[in-house]
């Protein structure tokens, strides 16, 4: 075998193609036809029921009216999040990890934390132990 590949013969051990053709093999689950039939049956029930179509049309109209009637979004509120915060040199030296650099860093992200106040759980949840 020539290490510089000067020979004109084609080596059978190194074909000029990939081992993988990059097309995923799709194998259907045994119950996929049954599942699709059930979904199509549900879809025909929804399409044939005039109440569902009316409800969807009403909901769509309500959403469009809400979008059109709500006040314009004030983007200047977001811009104030980038304002720097003045902090003392002593506090930056003692506890730099607790010092915010901008207003955006002190915004309260989660106002209502479920795990923070366990006493606000309902009595039913306390009985069930959840």
Automatic annotation (TrEMBL):
<dbReference type="Pfam" id="PF14989">
    <property type="entry name" value="CCDC32"/>
</dbReference>
<dbReference type="InterPro" id="IPR028039">
    <property type="entry name" value="CCDC32"/>
</dbReference>
<protein>
    <submittedName>
        <fullName>Uncharacterized protein</fullName>
    </submittedName>
</protein>
<dbReference type="GO" id="GO:0044782">
    <property type="term" value="P:cilium organization"/>
</dbReference>
């Amino acid at each position: 075998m020539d290490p510089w590949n000067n020979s004109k013969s084609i080596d059978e051990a190194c074909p000029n193609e990939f081992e993988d053709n990059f097309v995923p093999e799709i194998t259907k689950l045994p119950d996929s036809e049954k599942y699709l039939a059930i979904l199509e049956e549900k879809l025909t029930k929804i399409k044939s029921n005039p109440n569902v179509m009316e409800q969807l049309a009403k909901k769509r109209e309500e959403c469009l009216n809400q979008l059109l009637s709500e006040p314009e979004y004030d983007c200047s509120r977001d811009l104030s999040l980038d304002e720097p915060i003045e902090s003392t040199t002593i506090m930056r030296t003692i506890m730099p990890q607790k010092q915010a650099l901008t207003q955006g860093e002190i915004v309260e992200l989660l106002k209502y934390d479920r795990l923070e106040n366990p006493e606000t759980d309902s009595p039913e949840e306390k009985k069930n132990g959840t």
